[in-house]
Backbone:
């Protein structure tokens, strides 16, 4: 079992990474392989709804790591997204990145997912709400912790001193590992994934 953890911060080893690393350590302790992927400093282009990805399963824009993460997610069993808080929301690049990742990909269904937010002070719950919407439109199972999955601090040392935040990250990792094992046990017992209905799309115009 493997979980991809996406670092949506422009700082490779900053506060968001510190929180993700704590989640990864807990997953590893519970027998789950992890990979933390940094999306880099470059600004990701937003989705233009061109529809090209529906033919290829890949985004037509290749200046960032969207397609690379898609390839990783096709082989992975779970997903964690971490973002710093910018103006009470995820940073702009991770939003653009996730718009294209989820629009192009069809590999997310029935995989456990979680979002974490890092802030100096406030805006974390609004950020989490926005990130979780990518999961809840994709048939993913959202993993929770004993508190909202957030950490606070202006630098990694501050985050490491946030004892409740660090504990929340560890519990999140343990919960995801447990769910992954439950899914694996269900497959071994012959419990199949739900059969999806043919999708209907309406625009509420009568």
Residues:
């Amino acid at each position: 079992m493997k979980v991809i953890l996406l670092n949506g911060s422009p700082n490779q080893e900053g506060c968001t990474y510190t929180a993700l690393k704590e989640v990864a350590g807990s997953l590893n302790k519970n027998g789950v392989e992890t990979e933390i992927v940094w999306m880099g400093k470059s600004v990701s282009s937003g989705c233009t709804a061109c529809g090209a990805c529906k033919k290829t399963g890949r985004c037509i824009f290749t200046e960032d790591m969207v397609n690379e993460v898609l390839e990783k997610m096709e082989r992975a069993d779970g997903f964690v997204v971490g973002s710093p808080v910018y103006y009470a929301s995820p940073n702009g690049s991770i939003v653009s990145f996730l718009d294209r990742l989820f629009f192009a990909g069809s590999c997310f269904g029935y995989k456990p997912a979680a979002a974490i937010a890092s802030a100096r002070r406030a805006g974390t719950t609004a950020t989490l709400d926005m990130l979780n919407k990518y999961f809840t439109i994709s048939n993913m199972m959202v993993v929770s912790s004993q508190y909202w999955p957030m950490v606070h601090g202006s630098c990694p040392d501050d985050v490491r001193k946030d004892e409740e935040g660090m504990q929340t990250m560890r519990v999140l990792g343990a919960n995801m590992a447990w769910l992954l094992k439950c899914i694996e046990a269900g497959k071994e017992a012959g419990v199949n994934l739900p059969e999806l209905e043919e999708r209907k799309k309406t625009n509420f115009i009568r």
The two ends are 47 Å apart (CA to CA). The beta strands are 2-7, 33-38, 78-86, 89-90, 112-119, 141-142, 150-152.
